[in-house]
Amino acid sequence: MQKFLSAQQFGQRIESWRWLAAGLLSLSAIAFSLHPIPDLASLQIRVESEDSTLNSGQRAISPQLQMPLYWLSTTNNQIRLIAVPTTIPAGDTTTQQITQAINALLLTTPPSGTATTIPPQTRLYKVEIHDQAIAIDLSPEFLNQSSPTTLATSIAQIVLTATVANPEAQVYLAIAGKPLTSISKTGVLLKQPLTRQQFEQQFAL
Asked: 189-198: string of b/e by CB count within 10 Å (b at 16+)?
């Protein structure tokens, strides 16, 4: 025979279920506070942020180029110019490559057993290429030379380095925007354009 609950017993049973439900909701609230449901939008932003940080921390390796620079060497009291392969950043254009090479010649310590007559304060202002002509503009410090001979060898270093890619090129050398017309204060004229061939003959390259 089915047993019916009295009104008092039924009320007590409802009250106990209410407390049980309240307890379960409290436990659920505690659980969600410890392990909240992830917000997909904010999660996506966080992931993208981490990727951006990773990408910004990476540094692409610049392409490099082996290019000979010309330095002085003395053998049996004879001054010679020798080519020493040097790693420089590879420019996208011939103008950029010549610029990198001349800057390396101006700023790099000469390799062991070699020397340079280019004054250390010399800076490259500009390199321009027009067909077969290479225009090179240097700072005035280039003229701080001890003799016409050292100025001549400095010019040779610049011309030979600049014409590696194109031995037939003609070089026009300027100092602070003005064409260099003399290699000494006494008026020894410098005929331009300068060519690789004239220095190869002079220094027996």
From this structure: ebeeebbbee
Distance separating alpha carbons of residues 43 and 37, to the nearest angstrom = 11
- Regions of the chain with pLDDT less than 50: 1-5, 7, 10-11, 13-59
Question: Tens of pLDDT along 17-48?
Answer: 444 444 433 333 333 333 333 333 333 323 23
Please say whether the dihedral angle defined by the alpha carbons of residues 49, 50, 53 and 59, taken in this order, is positive or negative: negative
Domain count, the chain: 1
pTM of the model: 0.68
Q: Is the residue at 22 inside a domain?
A: no
- Expressed as residue numbers, the domain containing 78 is 64-202
Q: How many CB atoms sit inside 10 A of residue 3's CB?
A: 4
